[in-house]
Design brief:
2 copies of one chain form a homodimer. By secondary structure, chain A is of the alpha/beta class. Among the domains of chain A are: 184 residues, Alpha-Beta Barrel (nicotinate phosphoribosyltransferase); 109 residues, TIM Barrel (Alpha-Beta Barrel). In chain A, strand 17 and strand 18 form a beta hairpin. In chain A, helix 1 packs across helix 4. At the A-B interface, helix 1, helix 6, helix 7, helix 8 and helix 9 of A face helix 1, helix 6, helix 7, helix 8 and helix 9 of B.
Chain lengths: 437, 437
């Protein structure tokens, strides 16, 4: 089975219709986010690598056609789809860059049937990864330099999503993931401690901690809240002393009043001369919780973030769209109420800081002191250059984050920058709209 | 690569530790939801088939061990994991049944290392599918007999999640999905119309509708809002007349005031003697919107639900947990603040209606007039019977929905039933908690 069925039926329907009719002129589709969710002051572009990998392998194969026969496609439509593969060009914002409402993350130009057929998958991939990267970025802002770990695998929307959380959180600066397959696949640090069941199975915290330290020397982080956190901390202290354990060492708090428990744990560990034992917190935390704990001065060295990171709970999706902006050399747009799109192939020129942006037509000359965000990434169906390491995206993210204006950076009630529209684009939009009337 | 790395690191760590120590006694873990989200009055059990398929193929393979070597596992741990596969028993609530907070959806009993290693994947699978099925079920209640279509693929959390939405929405009674691969994989009806870009590419609605009807006779549903809905409806009427099109025929409204536009469209179609042309609505709708439109009498025959269904936007996750309730023949529990679990293998005895439930120990005799919800589905690592058709789950769902009490069924401010706990279970919980003090 090829990838051609990883789509909505209507993409195949339209592709067949275009090819039956010999409509093979080039179309450009622009993928952008209409409006940011209320809780987002910026987005982090992500998912491009998966898109390119998909386009690279996209072709209609015989068994796809066999299924479409069952689904009611007639001979003419099947023949029209036969041999279809992606031969177009793609421009995109590189992963890790910050983007805002209205800015294309990606533009596809190809014979209209091919371009249309990419819609569903490209939207899916960019939406999920950009959603997740943007949530992870907020956690990084919240943690203000403390370690962050991705603990989300158990409650993401499937395995695919778990991989995306691990990948995008690493892109934004998380130090490790608990997801072993993601760590293998993307070359990430993998981390983890023990579950409550481990402590329960020994029936006694000291026995459990002792066994764990013996079996995994150098990885001893003890989960201290199975019965009562204060006595769990004492058990950890006893075992560290008794076995003469050396750092790295840690305790993990997973329930209760994390702020108060972290302070008590820190005090007790310090009293015992165990200043090097690190304190980790987990248990339903998200970026806003982390920011509160950090701002309040809770002595926590690292946070394990799970479900609310993994599903981007406060904004689980984005208003991404994939709109035709040019066909057969003519700019095109749509004027449905509340869903107007701007015609023409685009470029975003960025000034000093993220959000200091001008949305323009691709052919425009860059205003002085700006750089273009969209770059060519695929030409005539072939990727330009090899897939890049995740580190490259991470560096771009860090650069953008450093320059992000405070109103966009705020976790609560952020103000996203409003991007400007170039005169040329505004004038083209006016002409196209007048033409449609 | 086997499936053994589709897990959190700590599961492998603990599994290795148990096996190094010869701790091979059987443990039972219970998978349940602590509390329902505020907007949920019931949940629909789903994901079991994927869990059984995973367990069936779960084994630690050589290349898994090779990666774990890189991840820092020492020789003793690698040897301990070698050859591990799942040899345990599973009881579960069949897919499609309604369940409530505290009720196990699944219980795994196996040598502790094996049982532990299943945690991450089983939680992931049950959580995503139960989340999505429960959201789809609300849509079915809202639609009150009108057709529902899954249009979510483009904005689900990955391809895996898109398949889960298609599968679980079909389980709850959706008539079709736009997701072609899901339709192929699960034997579903596939449906779809055209995008705005199709209309744009012809530059003229009538030309686009005409071409579509010619290429796909018998599937002509026209998207009428690319420029202006009222004139789009007129164009559809003209093309239907001009080509003498026969049903099935439809128009799709995708923006603006859907209620008003549907009434105008219905009136115009009826005036033209086209009473058989159906009206479909889409465009960011969710269950509450559907309920409002249906209650207000909007003449809409079918709804295409996308993003908010696909990510379960108002409750994108569930508080699922996987807790050890028995080890080596002894009941076990956890007493962390706010996270207390009940000891012992469980059964749920259901009376007349969903929610009329008693949470009990597995060995208890069913109270008169009740039926047990959990049934054995895997024995000694082997599935009991073949995978069942989705239709079986759908029938169970329909039966439960019919008997669901109104407070749980409400879409806004539902009251989920509070299940009772059997005397035997309450007494065991007391004894275990006393023992832990």
């Amino acid at each position: 089975m090829g990838r051609a069925l990883l789509t909505d039926l209507y993409e195949l329907t339209m592709a067949a219709s275009y090819r039956r009719r010999g409509m093979d002129a080039s179309a450009t589709f622009s993928l952008f986010v209409r409006d940011l969710p209320p809780r987002r002051g910026f987005l982090v572009a992500a998912g491009l690598d998966g898109c390119l990998e998909f386009l690279d392998g996209l072709r209609v194969e015989d068994d796809d056609l066999a299924y479409l026969t069952l689904a009611g496609f007639d001979r003419a439509s099947l023949e029209a789809l036969e041999g279809l593969r992606f031969t177009g060009d793609v421009w995109a914002v590189p992963e890790g860059r910050m983007v805002f409402a209205g800015e294309p993350l990606l533009e596809v130009s190809a014979p209209i049937a091919e371009a249309q057929l990419t819609e569903t998958f490209l939207l899916n991939r960019i939406t999920v990864e950009t959603t997740l990267a943007s949530k992870a970025a907020r956690s990084v802002i919240a943690a203000d330099g403390r370690d962050l770990l991705d603990f989300s695998f158990r409650r993401t929307h499937g395995v695919d999503a778990a991989m995306a959380v691990a990948r995008t959180s690493a892109m934004c600066g998380f130090v490790a993931t608990s997801n072993v397959e993601a760590a293998r696949r993307y070359g990430l640090h993998v981390a983890g401690t023990m579950a409550h069941s481990y402590v329960q199975s020994f029936g006694d915290e000291r026995a459990a901690f002792r066994a764990f330290a013996e079996d995994f020397p150098g990885r001893a982080t003890f989960l201290v809240d199975t019965y009562d956190t204060a006595s769990g901390v004492e058990a950890a202290i006893d075992v560290i002393r008794e076995l003469g354990l050396e750092p790295p060492l840690g305790v993990r708090l997973d329930s209760g009043d994390i702020d108060a428990l972290a302070r008590t744990a820190r005090r007790r560990l310090d009293e015992e001369g165990l200043g090097e034992v690190r304190i980790f917190a987990s248990g339903g935390l998200d970026d806003v919780d982390v920011a509160r704990l950090v701002a309040g001065g809770a002595p926590i060295d690292g946070f394990g973030l799970g479900t609310r990171l993994g599903v981007s709970a406060d904004a689980p999706s984005l208003e991404t769209v994939f709109k035709m902006v040019e066909f057969d050399g003519r700019p095109s747009a749509k004027f449905s109420p509340g869903k107007v799109s701007l015609p023409g192939r685009k470029q975003v020129f960025r000034g000093e800081r993220p959000g200091d942006d001008v949305l323009a037509l691709r052919g425009e000359v860059a205003p002085p002191g700006t750089e273009p965000l969209l770059v060519p990434v695929m030409a005539r169906g072939t990727r330009i250059g090899p897939a890049e390491p995740l580190q490259a995206a991470r560096e771009r993210f860090e650069e953008d984050l450093e320059r992000l204006p405070e109103p966009a950076r705020r976790l609560v009630d952020p103000d996203a920058p409003r991007i400007r529209i170039s005169d040329e684009l505004a004038s083209l939009a006016g002409r196209v709209q007048d033409g449609a009337r």
